[in-house]
Amino acid sequence: MSRDRSGSAPPSSSRVEILRVNDNEHAVVRFLSGYEEYGLITHLVRRLPIPCPGAALCPSSYHSALTIWKGYAPVEMYLPAVQEWSPRVLEITEALEESLAGRELRGEVWHISRPRTKAKGNKVLGVYCETLGEEYLAKPFKCLPVLLRFYHVTSLVLGTPNPMPRTVILPNSKDVIPHLPEDMLPPAPHEQTAEERKKVAEEIRKAGGLGKMAQAAAERQRRAAEGEQPRPGKGV
Ligand SMILES: [Zn+2]
Asked: Which tens digits make up the pLDDT trace of 100-121?
């Protein structure tokens, strides 16, 4: 089947908005250009990102708050239901930028996702898929008006590179085994036996579920911390 759909019905128009990939969301995008032009520093103030106007103009209470870099790039997001590419301004996090850094990006198709592995601070992941030829690519559009509306400001300090250093990755070594007294060796990871698993499952069932078990443990800890003796008749 041909991938070229340019001869079919004319595509619809979209209001260009920020594409932010949240927990458990994913998107397929093709880059119209890189993000270097649109890097900026934000401060997290009352959990809201406030763009930094530069040290001279930034309120000192904001400027000393947590600093988070964000980048933006003009992209098109693929809409599978209508088989269209829709223009968006992709928000690039510090983590995603590590995968994108140093690449051409124009024409590159990426799968962007944020798997939820913990309650807060899940990382945005990017996987390169393919590079499309110029015949499929619109000219990059200006992201500035979209960013000004998004942050509700009339100017922004842009073009700031990600100040976070790259993740340090070094190889492990596998050569000699150290001579140590046996009791100083760290224990080998313990694999639960079927018998042990059964015992744990029985304890959880007796306690009325994991939630109740955790509640009871927390209560015991609280009492121990306060030096309080468990009161008779109020079993937990
Ligand atoms: Zn600032």
From this structure: 999 999 999 999 999 999 988 8
Q: Work out the burial of residue 163: count CB atoms within 10 Å of its CB; fewer than 13 is exposed, 13-18 middle, 19 or more buried.
A: exposed
- Which alpha helices (DSSP H) does the chain contain, by range? 60-63, 94-100, 144-151, 194-207, 210-226
Domain positions in the chain: 18-151, 193-226
CA–centroid distance, 71 to ligand 1, in Å, is 16
- Strands 67-79 and 40-45, how do they pair? antiparallel
List the beta bridge partners of residue 42: 51, 68
* Residue 151 alpha carbon to ligand 1 centre in Å: 14
Cα of 56 to ligand 1 centre, how many Å? 8
Give the global pTM. 0.73
User: How remote is the CA of residue 155 from the centroid of ligand 1, in Å?
Assistant: 14
Cα 2 to chain centroid, rounded? 35
Q: Rounded to the nearest whole angstrom, what is the distance from the C-alpha of residue 53 to the centroid of ligand 1?
A: 6
